[in-house]
Structures are given as structure tokens and as C-alpha cells.
Structure prediction request, 246 residues.
Amino acid sequence: MMRLFSVLICSAVLIFSSCGKKLLPTSSVEEEYALERFDFDYLQAKSKIRFSSPDRNLSSSASIRMKKDSIIWISVSPVFGIEAARGFISQDTIVFMDRVNKDVYRYNYQSLSNALNFDIDFEMIQSIILGNQVFDFKGDDNFSKRGGELKIDQKRGRFELETRASSKNRKVENVKVREIPDGSKMEIIFSEFNIVADQAFPFNTNVEIIAKGTEESTQVEINHSKVEVSNSPISFPFSVPGKYEN
Prediction:
């Protein structure tokens, strides 16, 4: 369970940016290659998460609740609707409660950033769920168009990223990430876009990670069955029992 949670967090770190053949001034980029950002106040989703690796497979139902730019709440229930884990992500910390083993795990963004050698923040995690662009454009990024596709190349720290987006709905559809110099790879595919609150939202997300020195892959698939947004506040219940290990 913790491995699944870690993969999802790491996926959030590495999302959105793209590839191409020409350099454009920032003002031209913003006008010609601007990608749509899903906007909301409060969001609730019913989802199914599938995780597979060389040594483990897991399928679980999940409930996701979000307050824009503030809170991400996740409840994971593998069987019979019984909650096995709950996560609470804020602008400052990440807390994950393992109800099966009675453990609690706490992180801050600095510790995660140090562990991955890459700056992580709340917006990145939020963007992977919403299908939003994470990294702002820079003047030395590369951009191109082919048919109905936008393509952008970016380099951020030790990662090279290639993003492809539809010129129709301006939503990211494919992201490829390569780590330099060890060659670890990640690919993220967003599909099954449905209209939620008059905006395109990806109801299917596939993540594949291939670590350096091996062709064995870790895969995460997230399928949303229902996504709703509202202006009315919703609850984010989260408390750690005293008997849990700290």
C-alpha cells in the first residue's frame, strides 16, 4: 500500500511539459500553446486504482476529495468497502494512515524533494489528478505543431520531458519523462476525457515506470467512475488514533 502511495506521489512530481522544434517568445507561447487548466472550488471523485509491479498486484476502490489549492483527501478500500488507508495532503505536509498495520507516515515537501532530488509541491500533486500543466513555459523550451497535436520539450533539473497535447481541447494526453544520466523512464497517458462543469477531465490515467538497469515495469491505472464539482464546502475527515505508531 505504501509503495502504491509513493508511486502516485512521484508521478505527481513528473507530470506536464512537452517537446518540439522551435523556440518562441514567452508571450507567443502563452497565446499559441496555452493548455487548459481544470478549475473548481471543491471536487469529489469515485475511482478504481490498479497497481502492478514485478512482485505485487493490487486493485482497490478509492474516494478522492479536493479543495482547490488547499487539500487533497484520499480513502482507499480494497475489499467490501472496508477502508484500508487514508491520506491527507495539504500545502505543507502529506500524512498517510495505514489502517491495516496501524501505522502513520508523515512527510513534508522538503524531505520528499531531497529524496527524489527534484522539487515537489502541492500544485504538482494536484495537477496529476486534474490533468493540468505543472511546469510553466520558459523561453528556451521547444515547441511544435503537427496536425491536431501540440508538442513541447522541456528540461527541468535532471529530467527531460516530452508532452503531447490535443490542439482541440488543449489538454495534455501523453507525457514521457527520462532521467539523466541513469535512463529511468516514465510515461503517463491521459484518456477518456469527459465534460465536468463544462470542462474536459481525464477519466483514465495510466502511469508506467521503468527503473534504471531493468526492463521490469511498475504500472498504475486510475479510472474515475464519477467526478463532481461544487461551490459548497465538503468535509475532509482525518484524525490519527493514539494507538497508531508515529
Summary: The first strand starts at residue 42 and ends at 53. The CA atoms of residues 118 and 157 lie 7 Å apart.
